[in-house]
Amino acid sequence: SIILCTLNKTQNNITLTSLQRDTYVRIPGHKSNRINAPYVWGGATLLEETLEYNFGIEIDGYVEVDFSHFAKLIDLLGGIELEVTSGIANFIYSESGSRVKTGMQLLNGEQALHYSRYRGTAAGDFDRTNRQRVVLSTLLNEYKNKSMTELLGLLDDILPMVTTDLTQDEVLGYFMDFFPMLASAEIVSMRIPQEGAYYQAKIDGMAVIVPDIPKCAEALHEILAEYGAGVG
After folding, report:
1. Phi then psi for 112, rounded to 5 degrees?
2. Residue 137 belongs to what H/E stretch?
3. Torsions phi, psi of 174, nearest 5?
4. Choosing a second label site near 167 at 20 to 30 A (CA), which of 85, 121, 208, 226?
5. Using one digit for the tens of pLDDT, what is the confidence trace for 93-120?
6. H helices then E strands: how many in the chain?
């Protein structure tokens, strides 16, 4: 999952922009491939270079969270409430052995992870990335109810669960900017490529999404112009 987070303290907005993992892009020093390939070949550094090379944006820093720590971050809050369909309920059961009813349900970390990974719908990965943004938005909304003292206490638990290229001072600075915003910030959900800016194809045996790079770059720059210039 690749999500670009944009913070704007002035307009009090937090934008989450998913980048579809099958998006076919140019990769510096390599042949063109899906956008998730750079991470495999060169980690977050090459992924950052790929995003900057294709879309002309500057990445200020990255934060990585693996599956197990993603689940633990949700469990720290006692779970989150999400809308469960029968397909998702069946997938959660097949992956974890736990039974979940349909409708709005309180899911623990492991169940929310499987909710985020499910792609058994007609729209496939487009629906999945939308659910991932729903999970993050819901998670952020849960943190709105925490005091700064509580949040600083949670930071000691959260930091060991993530990998980042930000320094400790930068992390604390973002934290002090980010969490006070949550009480009233608008959380905006986007995706790239957007509707009308891609076509599907098969290249080198791979099913890929071929983006209209200029249109996608323009959309990302509009997000940055409207919602702020801080990107993680």
Report:
1. -65, -30
2. helix 125-143
3. -65, -40
4. 226
5. 999 999 999 999 999 999 999 999 998 8
6. 8, 12
Q: Which two tokens stand for residue 214?
A: 């200029």
- CA 126, chain centre distance (Å): 13
Q: What is the 3-state secondary structure (H, E, C) of 56-79?
A: CCCCCCCEECCHHHHHHHHHCCCC
Residue 102, both tokens = 């349909």
Give me the residue label for tokens 């409708």. 103
Q: CA–CA separation, 1 vs 4, rounded Å?
A: 10
* CA angle in degrees (0–180, nearest 5) for 143-146-147: 140
Question: 143-171 b/e with 16+ CB inside 10 Å = b?
Answer: beebeeeebeebeeebeebbebebeeeeb
Sign of dihedral through CA atoms 15, 20, 26, 29?
Answer: positive
Q: Which amino acid is at 187?
A: I
User: Does a cis peptide bond (omega within 30 degrees of 0) precede residue 28?
Assistant: no
pLDDT tens digits, 165-198: 988 888 888 877 777 777 778 888 899 999 999 9
Quick one: which of 117, 108, 168 has its CA closest to 139? 108
